Amino acid sequence: MNQTIQTLLGLSVCLNALFISLGVWIILKRGGLSYLATRVPLLRKLGIKSTQGSPFNFPYYDHRKSQLSLLPVNASNIIFLGDSITDEGEWAELLNNPAIRNRGISSDTTIGVLDRLQDIIAPRPQKIFLMIGVNDLSNLGRSPADVVQTHKEILTQIREQSPQTNVFIQSVLPIHPSLFLGFVTNSNIQTLNEQLQRLANEFSYPYINLHAHFLGAHHQLDAQYTSDGIHLNGIAYQRWAKLIEPHVLP
Fold first, then answer.
1. What residue ranges of the chain have pLDDT lower than 70?
2. What is the DSSP track for 73-100?
3. What DSSP line would sit under 160-228, residue for residue?
4. What is the pLDDT of residues 126-165, one digit of tens each?
5. What span, in angstroms and rounded, lies between the C-alpha atoms of 103 and 118?
6. Contact predicate 155/204, CB 8 Å
């Protein structure tokens, strides 16, 4: 009898530890305290706020943002703006164009892009290729409608402060849910892209539907392009560059 009780107690402790660990993991994936601050009013009263930019506030985000703020942009530049999907692309080499400047930052969101936009548009660059939003959905738990609203703020600032800049709104790419354990669905991504296309039309900016070119079976990111279900390998970046090359050329 005592052995049975000890076994049950041990099992209970293990299950509780498992559920606690799972809960902590979910909160961290959603953005930690900054995510909870959007859900629990008490935390906001304690002064814990949702962060701008990276929901995890990684040192990498702060360091890269600081570095990019010191690097000059001029009116002849072509800016690639976004999160890690953009950050990891060697765009100047892929497109053989020294005028390109990569302003992607890993884990960034539409909120983060809006926060650092002035450094990018003040010199009135020639073109901006924008892809952003998947981290809003996955890490901040925002709805597609909320993400599009921040997109609209970004585009409004560009239109008002750098009207000659041509903005190319690129669709958010699909994920491979079997490989990526984040909190985002391809259905949500598709909804976001549909709304982004309407927003592009509203501003008369070109919309580039990259999403359709990276789909594999079951309408998800083709496994040949990724090892983790969301980030891209070299073949994928070559394909991406080929698709947008006509828009990059003068």
1. 1-2, 6, 8, 17, 19, 21-57
2. --TT-EEEEESHHHHT--HHHHTT-TTE
3. HH-TTPEEEEEPPPP--TTT--SS--HHHHHHHHHHHHHHHHHHT--EE--GGGGB-GGGSB-GGG-SS
4. 999 999 999 999 999 999 999 999 999 999 999 999 999 9
5. 12
6. no
Sign of CA dihedral 202, 151, 220, 168: positive
Strands 100-104 and 207-208: unpaired
- Residue 248 and residue 250: Cα distance in Å, rounded? 6
Nearest to 204 by CA among 177, 167, 236: 167
103 strand-pairing partners: 81
Place of tokens 């950050």: 87
Residue 79 in tokens? 């800016």
